[in-house]
Write a structure and sequence with these properties.
With about 130 residues, this protein is mainly beta. The chain has a single domain (about 10-120), classed as predicted glycosyltransferase like domains (Thrombin, subunit H), CATH 2.40.10. It contains two helices and nine strands. The strands form two sheets. Strands 2-3-4-7-6-5 form a six-stranded antiparallel beta barrel. The chain has a two-stranded parallel ribbon with strand order 1-9. The protein is globular, with a radius of gyration of 15 Å. The chain starts with a helix and ends with a strand.
C-alpha cells in the first residue's frame, strides 16, 4: 500500500487576508491576520509568539469587524512561531468562504495596525490556492 492510499486528504487552503479575533476562556482574546483558510479551519498570524495559548483549547472565532460576522466555535490545533491554527468545531457554515472574501476585500491594508498586538484581559478580545486581492 502506498502512502497516498493511507494519508487522509487535506482540505484545500485559500490564501485570504482577513482580520480575526480568537476569544478564549479567562477573558483572553487575540487579534491576527489570516494566512490561509479552509472549510475546516484556518491559520492566522499574530505578529508575536503566541502567549497563554495551549493546543487543544476551545474558543470562539470572530471575523472583523465584529458587527458583520457570525461566531464560529473552534479548537486550537497548532501553534507556530508567531501564529495560531484553529479547527472549526462545527461544519463550516454555508457562505463562510464568501464572508472571508468579502471582509478581506473590504479591508484597507494601510489602515491595519502594524504589528497586530494581543488583546489580553478584556476586563480592562490539500494544497494552496491563491485569491488575488
Amino acid at each position: 500500500m502506498q502512502n497516498a492510499d493511507v494519508c487522509p486528504t487535506r482540505a484545500e487552503r485559500y490564501e485570504l487576508q482577513t482580520r480575526v479575533l480568537l476569544e478564549l476562556s479567562g477573558m483572553r482574546a487575540y487579534i491576527g491576520m489570516t494566512i490561509n483558510v479552509s472549510d475546516s479551519g484556518l491559520l492566522f498570524e499574530l505578529g508575536y509568539p503566541p502567549i497563554r495559548i495551549d493546543v487543544g483549547e476551545t474558543g470562539l472565532l470572530h471575523l472583523m469587524p465584529l458587527t458583520l460576522c457570525r461566531i464560529i466555535p473552534c479548537q486550537v490545533s497548532r501553534l507556530t512561531e508567531s501564529g495560531v491554527a484553529v479547527q472549526f468545531l462545527v461544519q463550516a457554515p454555508v457562505g463562510l468562504m464568501s464572508e472571508f472574501e468579502v471582509v478581506s476585500r473590504s479591508r484597507c491594508r494601510e489602515c491595519l495596525p502594524q504589528p497586530l498586538l494581543p488583546v489580553i484581559g478584556l476586563e480592562s478580545t490539500g494544497g494552496a490556492s491563491s485569491v488575488r486581492l
